Amino acid sequence: MNVIVVGSGIAGLTAALHAHEAGHVVTLVTKGALGDGSTGFAQGGVAGVYGAGDSAERHARDTVDAGAGLSDPVAVSTLVAEGATRIAELIARGVAFDRSPDGELLLGREAAHSHARIVHAGGDATGAAISHALSAAVRGAGIPVVERAFLVDLVIVDGVARGIRILVDGAPGELEADAVILATGGAGHLYAHTTNPVGTTGDGIAAALRAGAAVADLEFVQFHPTILDSAPAFLVSEAVRGEGATLIDADGRRFMFDVHPDGELAPRDVVSRAIARQAAAQGSPVRLDATMLGATTLARRFPTIDRVTRERGFDWARSPIPVTPAAHYLMGGVVTDLDGRTSIPGLFAVGEVARTGVHGANRLASNSLLEGAVFGARAAAALDAPAPANGPAHTHTHTHTHTPSGHEHAAPDHPVARTFSRAALQQLMWNQVGLLRTDDGLAHAQETIRSWRSEIAARRSVTDHEDANLLLLAHETVSAALQRTESVGAHFREPALIGV
């Protein structure tokens, strides 16, 4: 079978390697260079190694709890059951996870995990280690790689995915295939503040929407709580709080236990909202205090964070550092079954572009790399298998295809920006479709985005395509947020917007 994999993070690299090893003819297409994307920036680790008193069942329970009860239990069970195998595979492919002097894997704990079960590589450089090892494996296997290739659209023939249209260094092209696996990541650049690398503009989800694929849960956008309050955005891993660092207000008081019994280790959505509210109330950033860990431990355990914070003028071993939330991860995406199949025959989706049902309304820390490895391998294994008669799994969350929203809301009395720009869209999404949402704010965003979409010219350059993709995803995200009237997980509705 001729297979195209679009994207070169952990999900795409894993899918490409497994498909190649199964005898398929694989071409890997990536927007930048091989290994570019969010995986290489991941400071957190891979959850799924269980010590004394821990188990896959406990991991599953933590995942469902963090997901506010909206996770698909079958998908979660699949994730945790296959985690150990995928972690062992990463080790076999050359990922050197951190170990104790006696050779045992070191296990860390992050927010909303009940036990230490997360493996890291290079302290806070897990994603870079995985990206390097898997990219080397792809090169070593002789899998053809098309770099600097922008996904324009899917090629659908008689309702089946048969290839992709791309721009390579600006020149149009088309690649034919018997199956396409999307692994294009999320859409962090919908927002003014994000941890995502440049180029994370939702291209795969947008292409799937235009092709008629079902999507779900786009309203569930995770904001990482602790980004260093110093441009450009730099993530301070949740593992720092897992090691004992605390969040303090302007008076030096820990405030998270006022909000949640787990304090700093509450689910990400809870911590992010609490930080935003506290910062607004005091008129200054919240601070992360890691001084109790000491300079030696911080440099050894978190070498990347230690280096970057010092380069920016902070000595976090001596003084707390200012932190703020930023858009980090999209729980929703293209709806898939447990093998990555979408509602379009021949089209698969894995990683952040996919909505497997694992994450529900809020992703548990360090489940994203695990999800990419587990479902990337499953999608490759399913290429030759017959599709189930009932198509991809649909859980109790709503799904929709790219059609005009049936929930149009009257816009409040807000001025609508006259001219579209990406920066204006990102600020609109941050202000109205971010951590704290209101009916009026969402309706204003919907009206503004509708106005901007009417003025967008034909897509020619990569920037034109990215802007169109962002506008499409913004429209769908706002529509989904308006339809879900209750607050749950990362989607939080309130009567009046508190400044963030």
UniProtKB/TrEMBL annotation:
It is an enzyme of class 1 (oxidoreductase). It is found in: Cytoplasm. Its main location: cytoplasm. GO terms for molecular function: L-aspartate oxidase activity; steroid dehydrogenase activity, acting on the CH-CH group of donors. One of its GO terms (biological process) is 'de novo' NAD+ biosynthetic process from L-aspartate. It catalyses: L-aspartate + O2 = iminosuccinate + H2O2. Pathway: Cofactor biosynthesis; NAD(+) biosynthesis; iminoaspartate from L-aspartate (oxidase route): step 1/1. Residues 422-494 form the Fumarate reductase/succinate dehydrogenase flavoprotein-like C-terminal domain. Its cofactor is FAD. Residues 3-369 form the FAD-dependent oxidoreductase 2 FAD-binding domain. Residues 386-413 are annotated as: Disordered. Its EC number is 1.4.3.16. It holds the Pfam family FAD_binding_2. Catalyzes the oxidation of L-aspartate to iminoaspartate, the first step in the de novo biosynthesis of NAD(+). Belongs to the FAD-dependent oxidoreductase 2 family. NadB subfamily. This is L-aspartate oxidase. It comes from Microbacterium saperdae.
